[in-house]
Amino acid sequence: MNFVTLGWVLGSIAFSTSIIMLNKHLMNGFGFDCPIFLTSFHFFMTWLFLEILCRFRFIERATTISTYDRWLVSGLGIAAVIFQNLNLLFNSVGFYQLSKLCCIPFMVLYKFFVEHQAIPGKILFSLVFLLIGIAMFTVNDVTFNALGTIIALVAIPTVSLTQIYTKTIQDKYAINGPALQHATAFPQFFLALISGFSFETYGKSNIFTYTFKPIIILLIVITGFFAVGCNACAFGLIGKTSAITFQVVGHVKTILIFVFGLVMFRNPQETVTMLIKKVIGLSISMVGVVLYTIYELQLKSIEKKEDNNPILNEKEETLGSDEEEEEFKQFPENDE
User: Fold this and answer.
1) What is the Rg, in whole angstroms, of the alpha carbon atoms belonging to the chain?
2) pLDDT at site 243
């Protein structure tokens, strides 16, 4: 691993961990209960960053996406981010991060029931570890609450469907992640802004009555640059590292977010015994996630080898030709 790649890895870990911790600090430490407006600001900064990259031709514009698909993926994306930020607002950092891991079993079940894909035994084995760990952590989380749980249960399918549909759109139009994100970032900023005015301009979460101190404004601006940093490092990682490295970096970020969340935002009602049980639950969940990653990479490797096997492809083509010939022979020739 060279220094450039190491820089992308460390940057991704630092920015991703920092933005979640800083968002939580704004919500808990300064009572900033307007996560939707914060989301809109992050999307605007992301669009601005990607627009600059487009102007200097570092990335290409996605001009072939239909208006319907552009707004559909934007709507799903903004719903996912808004509910994730609300999830972070009403739940502990640990519960928030574990709910994100629940996207894995949701997507597995989606593939089974909707796309009718079989679930390998190894995948089910890894999900058992993941769910046991989540159950242990949740039972010992003193900040567990009904509203937060409902929000998390809404966030899980919206995040999962966003990831699924994003992959579908990329395959459909043959575009990469940065191009798609640039095409959807401004619509997402617009949708988040409208949502913010709809839900965060009255009651407790009122952006107009909130007292913005200089330190709060500074922290909000910093979160915007962190959002840009997350995107920049994600693009760098995708281009410079393997799938395994990308997955490992993701797991490192998850563990760090857990650790910082337990240390920085620990509830005073939480006993040492409860904390130990949460750490054990976290550890079991991470075992499940790592096993799932290994099995998924193995399956993708097998599928790739099958796709690149010229002998197998030649046999399939021959079988296809024979079938077409047999089908043709069923009909008499017409000389007219």
Assistant:
1) 23
2) 59
φ and ψ at residue 16, rounded to 5 degrees:
-65, -45
- Read out DSSP for 52-84? HHHHTTSS-------HHHHHHHHHHHHHHHHHH
CB 66 within 8 A of CB 205: no
Average pLDDT by stretches of 10, the chain with 336 residues:
78 91 92 93 94 91 92 92 88 84 89 88 90 83 78 92 88 88 93 94 90 95 93 74 68 83 77 86 89 85 73 52 40 40
Secondary structure letter of residue 292 according to DSSP: H
Q: Residue for token digits 């502990």? A: 92
Please state, in angstroms and rounded to a whole number, the distance separating the CA atoms of residues 190 and 302. 42
- Extents of the domains making up the chain: 1-32+210-266, 37-92+144-206, 101-140+271-309
Do 161 and 79 meet the contact criterion of CB atoms below 8 Å apart? no
3-state secondary structure of 61: coil
